[in-house]
Design a protein that fits this description.
29% of the residues lie in helices and 29% in strands. The chain is rod-shaped and about 125 Å long. This is DUF4189 domain-containing protein. Keywords: Signal.
Length: 163
Amino acid sequence: MKTIFVAGVILIAFMGHAAAQCPAGVPPSPNCVPPDGPGWRHNMPAPNTQPPAAPRPVWKSTWGAIAADGPNAALGTASGAKSKRVAEQIALKQCRERGGKQCVLDASYFDQCAVMVTGDKNYIVQTAVSIERATDLAMGRCNERDTGCRVLHTDCSVPVRID
């Protein structure tokens, strides 16, 4: 009986040690997790780390232009063009197609808005970050020099997201 008791104590003493043995190729750890396993401490994110920031969007500018022939009441406009040159060509061509004989390029702009305000004697073209801002500026300038000021044209050429 004494021999069985001693054998039992020895077995109990070595049971915990035997349970902590990991298979070959797995470093010793309390849970015997393989190094490529999701719970291994080197595969866990560091505490208090933030995920990488999302990439910022990439924007491409677009162009607009306004051309006019005041005496012949012809107006040509462009917006959303890929370049300044293209926007200007479109506006001048449109002005001529609408009866303009001496079309003049009044404004080229990118990533903003433009308005044309006309009075009884003159017209004003104004660009700004918004139609409201451009209108306020143009109406103020028109009312200083003319009467019967009113908005004739508004448009915006906004950037386009490419990524």
